[in-house]
Amino acid sequence: MATGRTHRPATRSRGIPEATVARLPLYLRALTALSERSVPTVSSEELAAAAGVNSAKLRKDFSYLGSYGTRGVGYDVEYLVYQISRELGLTQDWPVVIVGIGNLGAALANYGGFASRGFRVAALIDADPAMAGKPVAGIPVQHSDQLEKIIEDNGVSIGVIATPAGAAQPVCDRLVAAGITSILNFAPTVLSVPDGVDVRKVDLSIELQILAFHEQRKAGEGAAADAGAVPLAPKASRKGPDGDVPAVMPA
Amino acid sequence: MATGRTHRPATRSRGIPEATVARLPLYLRALTALSERSVPTVSSEELAAAAGVNSAKLRKDFSYLGSYGTRGVGYDVEYLVYQISRELGLTQDWPVVIVGIGNLGAALANYGGFASRGFRVAALIDADPAMAGKPVAGIPVQHSDQLEKIIEDNGVSIGVIATPAGAAQPVCDRLVAAGITSILNFAPTVLSVPDGVDVRKVDLSIELQILAFHEQRKAGEGAAADAGAVPLAPKASRKGPDGDVPAVMPA
DNA sequence: CTTTGTGAAGTCGTTCACAGCA
DNA sequence: TGCTGTGAACGACTTCACAAAG
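ok -> structure tokens follow
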């Protein structure tokens, strides 16, 4: 995901597998729900069901964090909430900036899931001067001239990019130059960043395309199920220059 | 990802690895950009760079689709665009419904990346009667009473859930009952669905939490780098009931 | 007797490195 | 000669299955 070399391929010490890290927020969510219902303990089986994974995976995941369970009993909910929160770094406050306050940027600014997990929207930044000063989610939008100053003044290390694709790389470069070391990218572009900067991307249309792939398979299931090469090209070459290649993208 | 058993674990025939499927949209995006610049051919090396992966992976991915390249030359851009589009099922039109027209739902309705890839927003649905009739992104919002009818009338098989967490499972159940077989879930809940229904989820706060995890590591890097157990708990048990466990979630 | 924690086995995915074709 | 296509080696993640602990 991250372009930069970061997640210690060497040093082999307390490395939690990436796949495990990606599931910790899931466990935390399930545990928080249990905590709110004042449930004191859970078994790996119950918690796994609530998080949508299987229990062996969950136990192995937790084993990377330490031995936090009690055999024959299960896990103490409050204690686990705390341990996972700490592991994820959520016991501290993370100021974030959102750059690009269009529909998506505004939705992100309004999104409650951030604040409730220790992420504080420190600033909203947009390139459109007409936006400047207008409050979104109660926070006044600032012009991108101020980008560097805002990041330094607030000690921001996480940036969210919600600009159009074309603006994403320049914005990214400025964020990195200003000291940002983690970026969540919603723009449909590959960002290049120096080593030491993490990038994660969320591409809404990619998810739909993956669903479409599987959906297509379902449709062609009753019919010609497994008759070798189903609708594939003539297998060998078909290297006709082009011209008859159907137009796919609606401009 | 999907809760239901779907992706043929047996039958071993033309199975494209899930990891490859997830990258096809990435390649497609890079190829589309090349196509727009009228670039006729690309090498695996160039295309890999544009898509942000390494070239060996890309070649292996393409090998699952067939032999679409020319040794010594590279890949024909237009031809590949077509092949990948077809493989993903994007040569057909996919009507989708978006349920939950809050900030996020509205942003999704306005998102250009859907329409440009064969996804057509067939309807916007919300439970709030006050929203009914109000146009969002040029499409009038319909009340959720109509949900089943809308799905049947439009032959919709893909649904997007952008409701609050509490409403997601009931909405999901209704979508499935009405014939939806693919769901993109933005609500922060685990959805349970019957076999044969695919669910993919996008959780905005999870991505930030993963970034925070790595960010935390970076901070503690210069200091006590690899001194065994860094800040971890007393290793053995610490099973005190609770009470002194720090509060983590700000209510 | 219940449920965790974990070696060992199994599965999936990535990378290497080179044979084969244009 | 240049670049694709792919077995084979490698590494990461998952699942199994059971010993150990409460």
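The mean pLDDT of chain A is 86.
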